[in-house]
Amino acid sequence: MGAKNRQKETLEMAWIGDAVLSLYARRRILAEGLGINNEKAIRMTSNRFLQITGEASEVEARIGREFEKEGLDAACTWIEANLMPVFEKQERRIAPPLKVKLGC
């Protein structure tokens, strides 16, 4: 496969992967029980975040390939294992958990 065809395939798979990642993000945020949170969804799917783990289009293409080969559950499992630990660490830096003192 030539460089031009490889780039075309990467961009096409990235387009699919982006959609899968967006779906994953929205489902995860809703599962947290806090309702719709567009800002968090944007942070979770942004190129800026994805570039922490690699070139953004390549990361999205990896998700797209996993989806095409193994289906949605496998793609979500890949996201959970490879992206969410990094995202959660980043989120703790943005908004560390509140320390609540109970008692008098």
What is this entry, summarized?
By secondary structure, the protein is an all-alpha fold. It contains six helices and no strands. It has one domain (3-94).
Key attributes of the depicted protein:
6 helices; 104 residues; mainly alpha
Task: Describe the overall structure.
With 104 residues, this protein is mostly helical. The protein has one domain (3-94). 75% of the residues lie in helices and 0% in strands. It contains 6 helices and no strands. The protein has helices spanning 3-31, 38-45, 47-50, 56-70, 72-82, 84-94. Helix 1 (3-31) runs antiparallel to helix 2 and helix 4 runs antiparallel to helix 5 (72-82). The longest helix is centred in the N-terminal third of the chain and has 29 residues, at 3-31. The radius of gyration is 16 Å and the shape is globular. It starts with a helix and ends in a 10-residue tail after the last helix.
